[in-house]
# Entry
Amino acid sequence: MKIRKAVFPVAGLGTRVLPATKAMPKEMLTIVDKPLIQYVVDEAREAGIEHFVFVTGRNKGVIEDHFDRMFELDTTLAARGKKAEQDILAANQPEAGAMSFTRQQAPLGLGHAVWCARDIVGDEPFAVVLPDELVLNTPGCLKQMIEAASKLDAKSNLLAVEAVPDELTHQYGICGVGKRNGRIFEVDGMVEKPPKGTAPSNLSITGRYILQPEIFKILETQERGAGGEIQLTDAMIRLAKTQKFYGVEFEGERHDCGSKQGFLRANIAFGLARPELRDGLRAEMKKYLEK
Ligand code: G1P
# Structure
């Protein structure tokens, strides 16, 4: 199964981290020195994704600018001989024509956001990557999933999953576990944000999916579910009646950067993972912890 396109739903309002996100998209929040959206685009490129589809909304124009070439900046850096800085800009730049932007227009939920990408994705399997979840690992989470998909039937759907404490299952999509083969298992039922004490397992659906294009037809008629939103999980439950779903317990640490604590933790974890920052950051942290 070849996965060429990834959809990034980036229309969310980011209300959990106000006021940071009042005038700036939450996807532009910075972990160390890169915006969240850059991390997930890099993860997708590492996994072999060739086309990047952004489902945006009002006030998100800066995301499009971020992935554009900044002519004035390039020229100024070149004139000043700042080669290292030019290389940083060039390294993470998808090719011209490899990005598409479409708008969700109304905050109707993740399922609706994915449906908005239907014409750009067309009739092929595709990835969905939620930018507020970062996974710190090499290879990245999406690469691990695409490798898993290559060993499965071409009409399979895959979900990245991670165990969460039982008392947090009501915050996530949760899947039931069927036949298992190492880190990959057949999904036996899914439920979006189960009421406390009713979850079929503690395996939460994280922000990485590989889906078959038949999901779009289902999303077209998907009714509102948890939180009054059109839920991707509800559409996947319907698709699971005719196609296989697999859970992939990926290797790596997941960070929910859409919450304040997760965002701070991600900055520490990604900072400590950078050889040039590690020792200095450790020394600073030690000082604070001893206070
Ligand atoms: C969405 C999905 C949910 C998943 C979560 C992961 O929920 O609907 O199934 O577990 O992302 O972050 P949201 O966080 O948008 O409420």
